[in-house]
Amino acid sequence: MMGEDPENFTQADIDRAIRYLLPSGLFDKQARPIMKHPSEIFPPQKETQVDAEGRPFHYLFYTGKPNFFSLMHDAYAKLLEIQAIEDKMLAKGIYKPDIEPLFLKRSLWLSREDLVKMVIEDVTDHDYNRLIRLLERIIQQPYAKHIEEFVLQFRRDIMAAGSKEVIEPLKYDDNGIAFSEGTGKRKTAMATVTVRDRGTGKVFINGKGLLDYFKNIQDREQIMFPFQFVGKLGDFDMECTVEGGGSSGQAGAIRLATSYALRSFLPEEQIEQMRQAGLLTKDPRVVERQKPGQKGARKKFTWKKR
What we know:
Blueprint: H1 11-21, H2 38-41, H3 66-91, E1 107-109, H4 112-119, H5 125-139, H6 148-152, E2 155-157, E3 171-172, E4 178-186, E5 189-196, E6 203-205, E7 208-209, H7 210-213, H8 217-229, E8 237-243, H9 247-262, H10 268-276
Parallel strand pairs: 6-8
Antiparallel strand pairs: 1-2, 3-4, 4-5, 5-8, 6-7
Helix pairs in contact: 3-5, 8-9
């Protein structure tokens, strides 16, 4: 209509067309109609699958899902490729891979919906699980690093909240022992923790030992869980100051503060594992208040007809 090439019509051209076709007196941009590019509205369509004589282009055309099964064939070919590399290394007497393993901690497999958009075909749950099992088998191979680029096209990055966090560097006392501090909150309890390296597993809370301060075994386990999770149980000493709240709230505050303090001693991979396990996530839950006209937060008074 405007003498433009429809194949190369961009969003900027659409906006310019709106201004040309609708020359109103509304100068505010928010008052103008908004039109999206057709590619954002209509789903992508597959190109012609057959030639002028009716012969299919793709050798998997008659499977009904040529793009999906082509991916399956490519994935299995990559599996055979890295298995051949392993066999070659074993023939040379090299039993341990000389390359680093494939690091995929900050990504997840594409969802079935994302895979449908990739292949532009309907993918059932059964087909999706078959592909994921094959890819899982590939990344478990010792030489999977050779086909990292192929594997990453089926992964999506996790926007880790900790990627923008600044972790305090280690501090050192007069004896040269490294230590780190962390603070945590749970309900109305506030805790400040100091974790010292080269320890023997001693834990002091407000000047008392762990067994003397917390009588409940669940609270003790909660406090020591961050050390157990990272495999450092008994390697550090911990001093803690906590106030407010009850025993459960104080234990939760100490656990969060301990997790924050441990970050300075750990590599980035373990920090991400702690975050995915929920050790670095604040618990916003509090006791629900009692409501007027009720016996408690949810409980009602017993209703009597007379």
